[in-house]
């Protein structure tokens, strides 16, 4: 038994974010080429990957709300985990292209139209910062939404760096700053993306979600009336917002009823954030040992 937990609907936020960022990508690419600024083009590449990431996150969030069916008995909740993973991988690929081009520019520095760089990047700060605020309420409870928020917020900070680069070039005339800042941008993006990548891989591999107290869960289950043992305890992320648990509990000399199961599921939800609980109750009869336990020791 368990608790239904409808994922928050950020459809409007996604639509606004995708539209604004796609328009800004086009603006950066056009003026990045016109001004010969790699920093601006690099930022456009990053923003394009964010448009792709927002589209993935939006699609995954929509799929996660679809009802289960005979072929997908848990529904499509896991799509949000796959979206977060794909988002991180695509972003790292884009970074590789930026680094390669920056290295070429360091070898052969090129002139940059710094005034264009400054005003275009300034627009980006407003767009990225404003869009990030649309996802701020969901950043703590949903890895999928957090991925969108972190990338957009990082964009705002990084684009601020592009503005600073344009000003520095204007006053110093040192065009080598453009590819150097591009490498710094790539480093910052990589650092910020690794956490998302590792956590999404962990969830995709059915790892225990971050913040779950496995020891505490087992200890709680052992406090159930006449409970002598807990085994085959599994906890994993069904999606980026929902956590599932299965466990075998041995209740000696006890009649398990709906009241006990409901109380246990509610407690697991309130104490540990478990949304979907499935319990197998056993009575410890040695004549009928648990098959799962026998397999785990074979």
What does it look like?
This protein is mostly helical and 298 residues long. The protein folds into two domains: 11-204, Alpha-lytic protease prodomain-like, CATH 1.20.1510.10; 214-296, Cation efflux protein, cytoplasmic domain (Alpha-Beta Plaits), CATH 3.30.70.1350. It contains nine helices and three strands; from the N terminus they run αααααααββαβα. It has helices at 11-35, 38-64, 79-107, 114-133, 143-172, 177-204, 214-221, 258-272, 291-296, and strands at 227-237, 243-251, 276-282. Helix 5 (143-172) packs antiparallel against helix 6. It starts with 10 loop residues before the first helix and ends with a helix. The model is unreliable at 1-7 (pLDDT under 50).
């Amino acid at each position: 038994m368990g608790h239904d937990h409808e994922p928050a609907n950020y459809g409007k936020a996604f639509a606004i974010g995708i539209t604004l960022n796609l328009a800004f990508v086009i603006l950066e690419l056009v003026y990045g080429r016109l001004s010969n600024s790699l920093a601006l083009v690099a930022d456009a590449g990053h923003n394009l990957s964010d448009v792709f990431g927002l589209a993935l996150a939006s699609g995954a969030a929509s799929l996660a709300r679809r009802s289960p069916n005979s072929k997908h008995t848990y529904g499509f909740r896991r799509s949000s985990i796959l979206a977060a993973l794909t988002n991180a991988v695509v972003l790292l690929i884009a970074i590789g292209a930026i680094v390669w081009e920056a290295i070429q520019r360091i070898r052969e520095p090129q002139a940059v139209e710094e005034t264009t760089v400054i005003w275009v990047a300034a627009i980006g700060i407003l767009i990225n910062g404003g869009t990030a605020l649309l996802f701020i309420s969901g950043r703590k409870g949903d890895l999928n939404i957090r991925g969108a928020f972190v990338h957009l917020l990082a964009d705002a900070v990084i684009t601020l760096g592009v503005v600073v680069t344009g000003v520095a070039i204007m006053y110093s005339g040192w065009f080598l700053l453009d590819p150097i800042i591009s490498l710094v941008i790539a480093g910052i993006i990589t650092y910020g993306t690794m956490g998302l990548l590792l956590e999404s891989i962990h969830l995709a591999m059915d790892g225990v979600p971050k913040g779950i107290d496995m020891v505490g869960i087992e200890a709680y289950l052992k406090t159930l009336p006449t409970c002598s043992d807990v085994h085959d305890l599994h906890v994993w992320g069904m999606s980026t917002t929902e956590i599932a648990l299965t466990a075998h509990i041995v209740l000696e000399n006890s009649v398990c009823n709906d009241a006990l199961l409901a109380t246990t599921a509610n407690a697991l939800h309130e104490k540990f954030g478990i949304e979907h609980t499935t319990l197998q109750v056993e009575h410890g009869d040695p004549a009928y040992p648990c098959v799962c336990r026998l397999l785990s020791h074979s």
